[in-house]
Each structure stands twice: as structure tokens, then as C-alpha cells.
Design brief:
Blueprint lengths: L2 H8 L19 H10 L1 H5 L3 H23 L4 H4 L11 H29 L12 H28 L1 H8 L18 H17 L4 H19 L8 H4 L7 H10 L11 H6 L7 H24 L1
Helix pairs in contact: 4-10, 7-8, 7-9, 7-10, 9-10, 10-12
Protein name: Cholesterol 25-hydroxylase like 2
Organism: Seriola dumerili
GO molecular function: iron ion binding; oxidoreductase activity
């Protein structure tokens, strides 16, 4: 497949040449883009901007979920949405995962950001905003490509014992994840995920605004998958027909590591025979069963 044919095949989700002489121009995003262009031009062109955007989005979301984790034991209105309401997130859990997260940012992300700032040219900012259609279609395209890449990577690191033991086992130290487990990762895994999230919009020739939208959405989905909550507005409750993975399915992956490898959609797990759908009620039922048995055994054990 030649470069020209590949470029043409990807042009349907690209913002290049999607406007012909201004005819039928989609102006929905143009006012916002004009404002950003005029008032934050230097910031947006900086090679550091995508890094700052991703990192700030991640810590904002993690901070929000961590506050919910700390409030949940005393606030039934929050705790009722947790997949494991009887297993609260503790301060030792928070400090351990936060420490690894900060370590990874200082050892890997900060040097990579400095290198990008020194050697990567400023981001070109086109005058035209992407059409609303190409904006969402570009994000969807990046999601589909990333989903396939990570499914294969994830499956491989579970099926090859050396890869799992060396790189991925760290992430599975918590079988009931919470938001800070999102980046409780080895450096190799953090690099792999960041590499694909950076490269995929380039491969699909996305507008820079589309690229930033995908980066923010990718961080949002990653933290939501690990948050441990089944909110009504979560993505898996909004996308119909069970097409989306979401928090319960990724929680099931940490319970049963041989299932649910895809980060976004469910089709690769369906096709690969690795799909499973436990419900929050099944977790609660299992916990209540164990609790009931322990209560029955307690008088006997006390007598002994």
C-alpha cells in the first residue's frame, strides 16, 4: 500500500481539504477556535501544551474521584454507586499509588516533556477550526485504532509470563481498582500508552483541536475505567447494546485477569472469547455470602 493510497484512505477523517471554497462551512467550532487562536496562540503552539493538558486533566479527575473515595464511607449517597461499597479506599492505598504516580511523572514524563520542548517544533495552528463532524469522527477514529493497539498489547502481556511478570503485574497488585490505580504502572506500560495516544492522531491526520480532544477523552475514560464507581452517567451506561467496556468490565478484568482486555469497546473481547460481564450486584452478593458464612462460623471459632 503506497503512502499516497494510505493518505487518501485516511482522509475521510482528516481536516485537510475538508472545506471547498468556504461552501457549506460548519461554523460550530470556529468562534471558540478563533478565541483560542487570538488569545492563547503562544500557549497552544508550545510543544509542552499537550503534556500539560493531559497531566492536568489526569490529576483533576483523580483528585475528584479521591475526594469521593474519602467521603463514600460516611456518605451513603456516594457509597451506593461504588462497585465494592464494603471495601473503602484507605489512606495507605492512596499514598502508595500516588507515590508511584509522582515517581513516574518525575522519572519519565518530565524528562520526555523537556525533550519535546527542546527538539520538537511549535505546533502549527491552522486558521480554520475542524468541522464538528470531523472533530467527533477524528476522535472516534483514534479510539478505534487505540482500542485495537492496546487490546493486542494487553493480551500479549497477559499471555506471555515474562512480559506480565516484568512489566504488567505491577498494575494488578490491586484487584479492586480505584482512580489512582490508573497510572500505577511500570515505565514501559506508561510509555506504550502515551506513545499510541500521541501517534494515532498524527496517523489519522487530525486537526490539533481534534488531537487535544482525543487526549482529554482518553484520560477521562482511563480514570473512569479504574474509578470503581457505577454512576448513571458513566460511558458504559450511555453507550447502548453493551458495546462499551467501562468500569464494571475493567473491574472484572482485575478480578479475573484473563478477561476484558480492550480499553474502550467490547468487540475485540467478544471476537477473542475474552469477554465477561459481572455486575455490581454480583460483587455485593458474593461479599454478603462470605460475610454470612463468617458470621455463622464466628461463635464456633470463638468457642474453640
Amino acid at each position: 500500500l503506497s503512502v499516497e493510497k494510505l493518505s487518501y484512505a485516511l482522509s475521510w477523517m482528516s481536516d485537510v481539504d475538508n472545506v471547498t471554497g468556504g461552501q457549506s462551512r460548519d461554523l460550530v467550532l470556529q468562534p471558540a477556535w478563533d478565541y483560542l487562536h487570538q488569545n492563547h496562540h503562544d500557549l497552544l503552539r508550545s510543544p509542552l501544551f499537550p503534556v500539560v493538558l493531559s497531566v492536568s486533566t489526569y490529576f483533576f479527575l483523580v483528585g475528584l474521584y479521591t475526594v469521593l473515595d474519602l467521603l463514600a464511607p460516611a456518605w451513603p449517597c456516594i457509597n451506593r454507586y461504588r462497585l465494592h461499597p464494603d471495601r473503602p479506599v484507605t489512606w495507605p492505598n492512596i499514598w502508595t499509588t500516588l507515590g508511584v504516580t509522582i515517581y513516574n511523572h518525575l522519572l519519565y514524563i518530565f524528562p520526555a516533556a523537556v525533550a519535546q520542548w527542546l527538539w520538537r517544533p511549535p505546533t502549527p495552528l491552522p486558521r480554520e477550526a475542524p468541522t464538528l463532524w470531523s472533530f467527533f469522527l477524528g476522535i472516534l477514529g483514534c479510539m478505534v485504532v487505540f482500542d485495537f493497539q492496546y487490546y493486542l498489547w494487553h493480551l500479549l502481556h497477559h499471555r506471555v509470563p515474562w512480559l506480565y511478570r516484568t512489566f504488567h503485574a505491577m498494575h494488578h497488585q490491586y484487584n479492586q481498582p480505584f482512580s489512582l490505580v490508573t497510572q500505577y504502572l511500570s515505565g514501559w506500560e506508561l510509555f506504550s500508552v502515551g506513545f499510541w495516544a500521541t501517534i494515532d492522531p498524527i496517523l489519522l491526520q487530525c486537526h490539533c483541536l481534534t488531537t487535544w480532544g482525543f487526549m482529554v477523552f482518553n484520560v477521562y475514560v482511563s480514570t473512569e475505567d479504574h474509578c470503581g464507581y457505577d454512576f448513571p452517567w458513566a460511558m458504559h451506561n450511555l453507550v447502548p447494546f453493551g458495546l462499551w467496556g467501562g468500569t464494571p468490565k475493567h473491574d472484572a478484568h482485575h478480578q479475573r485477569p484473563g478477561t476484558n482486555f480492550a480499553p474502550f469497546f467490547s468487540h475485540w473481547d467478544w471476537l477473542g472469547g475474552t469477554h465477561t460481564v459481572p455486575t455490581p450486584s454480583s460483587f455485593n452478593q458474593l461479599h454478603n455470602t462470605i460475610k454470612g458464612v463468617s458470621q455463622k462460623l464466628h461463635p464456633v471459632l470463638s468457642f474453640i
